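Reproducibility note. Readers wishing to regenerate the assembly model reported in the main text can use the exact inputs given here. Chain order matters: entities are listed in the order in which they were concatenated for prediction.
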Amino acid sequence: MKTLCAILIVAFASLCAANILAGLAPGNRPTSTWLTALRQTTGLEQNWSMFHSIPRFYRLHVRVIAMDSGGKEHEFGPGLPGLKTLYPREHIRYYYTFERLFTPGGENYREPYIKALAQALENKNPQLVEFSVHLNVETTHPQNTPQEISHLLERIRKGGKPTVEQRSVFGPFPVKNDGAG
Amino acid sequence: MALVEIYRSIWLKKVDDRRYALLRIAFATVMLINIVHLWPYRVTLLCVDGIIDPVVATSSGAGLHLSIFAVVNSPVPVTIVFIAAAVATLLLASGKLARPMLGILFWFLLSIMQRAPVSAAGWDFILLNLAFILLFSPLGEKWRPQHLLLRKGTPPDPQIVPRYGLVLIQLQVFVIYWQTVIQKVGDYYWQTGDFMTYFMLSHHSRFPGAWVINWQGLLDILTYLTLMVELAIPILLWIPKTRKAGLFLGVTFHLGIAIFGVNLAIFSMVMIITFLAFINPWHNQAPSTETQDLQKDAG
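Running the prediction on these inputs yields the following structure tokens for the assembly.
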């Protein structure tokens, strides 16, 4: 029994170690789906890319602006349920969430979120007809290329602001129909 | 035969079970802090009428979808799961039903990451990884926090246990630091030394502002120093003679990240607890069988 236990431990530890050390292997080697699934489920996937390049955003503010049938604007927060105001700087996971939802690749999550917003707005005020999601981003460098970014420090030296405000508007989406965009 | 002995030596060499107990208590403590951190997000990110669509979350990623939040998805039950996870951390720290509690915490972490993958932070992956390794490792369950940290109560006799769990965590620490350095050295801003200046301008900085321009020379040095420190920490921790220096460097580095960065304190705590896999505060008072084992190994 002791020998069997030792064999199991050595086998288990060796497999885990091989997987961990594979994280240092050069290149992106294709792995089978079941192996990827196993690695993701056990937490043994090796992707430690913390701050592998410069962070771009200084501040992120998300608002939902809805229009009623009379043309009047109503402002809401992006938090569901309840259309609550969220503070991504204080609550880092909201920052990650909205950054990933509203950048390329986040469409799968964004579309059902827009639908859920439409439903929440309809429940809140049946007079609302359409809405947009406004992303106000204060970024240190709007263009993410070294040539553009190198101007940033020069700009600050000349007394300019360290950030540039960029506004992205997603919408308008109808409140009452399928508002996926 | 020699290969078998090498394998035995790497994985099955005996160590004091208090080393695992210390790691178990530290892991439970950081998990409790992480649960407190996650508390305000539980309805918005994990409930069915929250920001993240459960169907999309289930269909994303390649992992086996085992999230409890696929079933438990309204505010009160989700809150109950959080309270249960918090209780599990307390039981784990006290050594009561330690392995089942660790299983619960592993499931809790996995559930959150699978239900809200777009909201995951870097430390979630490290905690999940640690939980998995500890789940199959000795845990030193008989040791309570009061025995190890306060030196109160009647302590149990130290036991000797195989060291494979500690070695796996040590390897993981190596790969975390070295892989991140490998990725960073290929990046333009790390190469030019500008990274730290831009980091200090970003929302991750505790004191963002134009002041960085006047300190650019120092920040350039800090950029390169960061790479060297990340390469050095695991090596210094690995070598017994430099272990204290590695510990000092690693703790100082992560305290610096926690102080100058915003929302990065849990990441720093998680990395600091992994250092416990390298240290042995009881090396002068090893259990008798461990001494024998060590002598046998030396012989």
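We highlight two features of this model. DSSP finds five helices and four strands in chain A. The CA atoms of residues 33 and 177 of chain A lie 38 Å apart.
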